[in-house]
Write a structure and sequence with these properties.
The structure holds 2 protein chains of 2 kinds.
Chain A: H1 2-18, H2 21-31, E1 62-72, E2 86-97, E3 100-107, E4 112-122, E5 131-141, E6 158-169, E7 174-184, H3 188-194, E8 200-213, E9 216-225, E10 238-245, E11 249-256, H4 263-268, E12 279-287
Antiparallel strand pairs in A: 1-2, 1-12, 2-3, 3-4, 4-5, 5-6, 6-7, 7-8, 8-9, 9-10, 10-11, 11-12
Chain B: H1 2-15, E1 19-30, E2 40-51, E3 56-62, E4 67-68, H2 71-81, E5 89-96, E6 108-118, E7 121-134, E8 137-146, E9 167-177
Antiparallel strand pairs in B: 1-2, 1-9, 2-3, 2-4, 3-5, 5-6, 6-7, 7-8, 8-9
The chains are: A mainly beta, B mainly beta.
Chain lengths: ~290, ~180
């Protein structure tokens, strides 16, 4: 009988022990079925350098972006290596709903006003390999004067860009992006200057980001023009950049052959030669 | 003898299965500094389990489920501070001292000790909690503070004065009997 009692006592003790804190925790862990994995975003800023990234402002996020593009370094000391001339773009980005962002901007390059919208279609996750985003922008150039171009109509000032942006965060440090792009270039000035009648342009944008520390990365983007006229004076845009992010700011330092930073401008109308006409620029993103 | 064990097993299961539980516990933290943007977030999907027989308590939450006012701040939090891809969960396992179901018909304050695990790092926490049973539910409220460096969270110098040295964690759980 005493043996039996001891057994029962031991039994009770063992049960008591089996409900210790760790077991409570294990019970919770086994009941937490929701996907606990966190997918790192592919890009931190809405642009890689000049090219759009798959980053979309979160609902209620308000970004204020100031972009400068200076003149080429090749201007030399007389122009302080290009810093005497600057195109400034001021841009506001806002998101009313999750996965949708709108933006308005004004670029001093050809006094261009732009409106753009960006929509998230699919996000990279454990079940889907890439981020897919749709992007469209329209740029309205207001520099041309009817006194210079008597037949100028409003539609001649409007150029449209449509892009599908597909990106993948390959690993913790490397993200890549490809952007099939269509640009309808209606700009009258450009038509007269180049005799390039090919106003429907197809471009493949490619870009990437390599993180070099938690808050710094090296970025690059390139726009491969597929059907530019062979006598065109324009070149493919190429941008190398360096991002520094702090809490509410992202500083993007860029080196580019493009003077425009609006989409149709830099994608189809970059004049600079990458070796001789590289210019410094920056985008400062401030979040409110 | 064998049947006695089986009966005992059932009995003991019953006795030791007095558990209260929630999946929608509210956990908040505040690391705000006056005059700067508020750095605070709320997690409304904390799971908590309480063994009312012995006062043992455990909770678990997903770091990515903390909601900030600014989406970008949330992204920074997950990517740069918490490394949520590597450490998706935070847990607590501890004990409410001298817990007694009969005492909590009116609000009573208890001492809680236990181990908080964030980013895979354990830290011993001692705090007090106000507990009351109303109807079928047990309400548990508490707060305590932790330091980011306790969990090897590095704050870069550029934002150091915008993030509080000590982070206040506030919990508010409504537990129902686990069937």
């Amino acid at each position: 009988m005493t043996k039996q009692k001891t057994l029962i006592l031991l039994f009770l003790l063992s049960i008591n022990h089996s409900f210790s804190q760790d077991d409570l925790l294990n019970e919770l862990k086994s009941e937490t079925k929701t996907d606990s994995s966190y997918e790192l975003p592919a890009f931190k800023a809405v642009q890689i350098g000049n090219l759009q990234s798959t980053k979309i402002a979160g609902k209620g996020d308000f970004f204020f972006i100031v972009a400068h593009r200076f003149a080429p370094f090749s201007d030399g000391i007389d122009n302080f290596f290009g810093l005497d001339d600057a195109n400034t773009k001021i841009q506001f980005v806002y998101s009313f709903w999750d996965g949708v962002q709108f933006s308005l901007s004004r670029d001093s390059y050809e006094k261009t006003y732009s409106g753009a919208a960006k929509f998230s279609i699919k996000k990279q996750s454990s079940t889907f390999p890439i981020n897919i985003v749709a992007y469209a922008s329209s740029d309205i150039e207001t520099q041309s004067k009817t006194s210079d171009f008597p037949t100028l109509e409003f539609k001649d000032r409007v150029s449209i860009t449509a892009q599908i942006l597909a990106s993948r965060r390959i690993n913790k440090n490397l993200s890549l992006l490809i952007a099939p792009t269509f640009v309808r270039q209606n700009n009258l000035q450009q038509y007269i200057q180049t005799n390039d009648s090919n106003l429907n342009r197809f471009i493949v944008g490619i870009g990437g980001r390599m993180k070099i520390s938690k808050r710094m990365s090296i970025n690059a983007d390139y726009g491969l023009n597929l059907n530019r006229h062979e006598d065109s004076i324009y070149k493919d845009p190429f941008t190398i950049g360096f991002d520094i992010e702090t809490g509410g700011h992202v500083f993007q330092l860029v080196f580019t052959n493009s003077r425009a930073s609006n989409d149709s401008g830099f994608l189809t109308r970059t004049r600079g030669d990458w070796f001789n006409d590289v210019a410094f620029g920056f985008n400062i993103v401030r979040v409110f | 003898m064998k049947s006695l064990f089986i009966i005992l097993l059932f009995l003991s299961q019953n006795i030791f299965c007095q558990k209260y539980y929630t999946r929608t516990g509210n956990t908040e933290f505040k690391a705000s500094v006056d005059a700067f943007e508020p750095v605070e977030a709320e997690n409304k999907s904390t799971t908590v389990i309480l063994n009312t027989e012995n006062g043992e308590i455990a909770s678990l939450l997903l770091i990515k489920a903390f909601r900030f006012r600014l989406a970008l701040m949330q992204e920074h939090f997950n990517e740069n501070y918490m490394d949520s891809d590597e450490h998706p969960k935070a847990t607590f396992a501890g004990k409410i001292h001298d817990f007694n179901m009969d005492e909590i018909v009116s609000e009573k304050e208890y001492k809680i000790t236990g181990i908080l695990n964030i980013r895979g790092i354990n830290k011993k926490i001692t705090t007090s909690a106000k507990i009351i049973k109303t109807g079928d539910q047990i309400f548990l409220k508490s707060n305590f503070s932790v330091k980011p460096q306790d969990f090897n969270i590095k704050i870069p110098s550029i934002v150091r004065n915008k993030i509080a040295k000590s982070v206040i964690i506030t919990i508010d759980y409504e537990l129902s009997e686990k069937k």
